[in-house]
Amino acid sequence: MDYQDILYAVEDGAAWITINRPERMNAFRGRTCDELIHAFGRAGWDRSIGVIVLAGAGERAFCTGGDQSAHEGQYDGRGTIGLPIEELQTLIRDVPKPVIARVQGYAIGGGNVLCTLCDLTIASEKAVFGQVGPKVGSVDPGFGTALLARSVGEKKAREIWYLCRRYSAQEALAMGLVNAVVPAEELDAEVRRWCAEIMERSPTAIAIAKRSFNADSENIRGISSMGMQALNLYYASEESKEGVRAFNEKRKPDFRKFSGS
Ligand SMILES: CC(C)(COP(=O)(O)OP(=O)(O)OC[C@H]1O[C@@H](n2cnc3c(N)ncnc32)[C@H](O)[C@@H]1OP(=O)(O)O)[C@@H](O)C(=O)NCCC(=O)NCCSC(=O)CCC(=O)c1ccccc1C(=O)O
Known about the structure:
By secondary structure, the chain is an alpha/beta fold. The protein has a domain at about 5-185: 2-enoyl-CoA Hydratase, Chain A, domain 1 (Alpha-Beta Complex). Helices cover about 45% and strands about 20% of the residues. A hairpin with a 2-residue loop joins strand 1 (about 5-10) and strand 2 (about 15-20). Helix 1 (about 30-45) packs parallel to helix 2 (about 85-95), helix 3 packs across helix 5 and helix 5 packs across helix 6. The longest helix has 17 residues, at about 220-235. Bound molecules: ligand LW2Y6JES.
């Protein structure tokens, strides 16, 4: 597959998969998800690879979720909501290798969900985390909510989703959303150190450990697939479209005119 939206590189047994859309703050469209799926499949089943790093190009963002300019109702790709996001999310869990999120700027919306799904997250002290769904007419009703609660606890996960605040790297560390925070200029070196340590460990023991962690939260896969069906209906609504339009028109959304449920 020809990559347009991502970069793929291998370094000392680590596959670095980088979302390369810095002009869109590394937001993903349908094509980006397809390329990521291809790259994770390639790295995940290559026996010479022991660890996978997921990164975003540029300084400003790791990833800011779905590309709002590719989204009026459904997104522009395949899958239940026009993005094969379910496939990507489950693949990050299914590859039998640790996946490290390398976060240097915003990890917002679906970008924060990707961090949540990665086995480990290493952040620059300039990183900013948060969900924005209820501000922009979206939600990730599966791994984005339920798995997040496993990392940060129910109360904090509900706060993150209902209020859509932004959290600093130190706050993310304190709540268990990330594993380590380092100065921006040391981020790559720190990620490489973690990769090198993992490369010294037994790959089979790690694969079994990963699968056993996954097994305990596997029911969330079912919640996700049911949730995506609901999300598809929500995306067709004027309430959701108001969120997307407001973001693109750089104004506050007016959600109060919709009664909700
Ligand atoms: C990331 C921000 C907090 C940055 O704010 P700020 O520093 O003030 O910069 P801005 O001026 O807002 O943005 C600069 C520039 O980048 C563009 N941009 C940023 N994010 C996106 C995006 N996601 N899509 C398209 N473009 C984006 C922005 O328009 C500006 O462009 P200019 O040309 O310079 O004007 C802030 O930008 C922000 O909050 N962005 C919102 C991101 C967003 O809405 N993401 C989708 C979130 S949906 C969600 O959270 C839950 C859904 C979810 O996880 C999911 C589940 C299942 C399927 C899909 C998704 C999904 O992620 O959609």
